[in-house]
Amino acid sequence: MPKPDSSRIPSPDRVAMRRRLAVLMWRVVAVLAFGLGLLGVVLPVMPTVPFLIVAAWAASQGWPAFETWLLAHRLFGPPLVRWRERGAVPRRAKWASTLMMAASAVGLQFFAQIPQWARIAVPAVMVAVAVWLWQRPEE
């Protein structure tokens, strides 16, 4: 049996540095997703909960205290818990998402500078998302 190449085994310091870098990356993703989710609270064209789902997932990878805070939050927690437990999306959110996607698809058709392929592909993706969304369980 060949002897392992000891030059390829990372030092404990290097392993610790990689771990710290990975934790930092997960925290950055969690904060960015949370920030985008907060933006979605005030901007009607931007979703909130999908970004919060990403924030909670990223936090679970490298920031357990932030994940716990999100799941226990008075406003953000219940939809996150519903999603984690059952993949559930409230009917009201399904309708809001579907109507916003439909309005966006219609509005997209009025911009002449957008290529024809995009005016077809983007609504097609929105239809696929809507079909997937309506297949999710409800509360």
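the 2nd protein, sequnce then structure:
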Amino acid sequence: MTGPGKVRILSGGLLAVAAAAAGVYMFTGAAVDGVSLRPGDRTLVRTGGEVYSQNCASCHGTDLKGEPDWQTGNPDGTLKAPPHDETGHTWHHADELLFRITKYGTAEAVGLKDFKSAMPAFEGSLSDTEIVAVLSWIKAQWPEEIRERHDLMNARAAGKKQ
């Protein structure tokens, strides 16, 4: 198989590996403790929107829709920027994992040595507060039902770490 079908299968495989690795990594105690998104904190969310606009919107879109055809890979083996709205998979990940991915980059956050990503690690350019603000702003854009599901997932993840 060649062409778009092969790229789609490879991209899907990479996403599955990344998700599996993230799950293993997330539940082995290698988490950043105490990270909690605060979509109800208006001041934090306002700051997050500004930081998102300056650092994230160029790839993930001002409307959180990500790059077109985001589930297919790029020719260089990286993945396209996914959406951060309810149509993407961002809300399927716990707060702490989202924080680690943003701060350290996907490969380090999920322990994949050879994972190629176009997303930079923001450890040197954004403070922890700014990262939480951006992620809180993203979560504040989700429909209430998705936020509630994300809260439940966070609660389950926290229970597994205890």
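The CA atoms of residues 54 and 142 lie 20 Å apart. The chain has one domain: 4-161.
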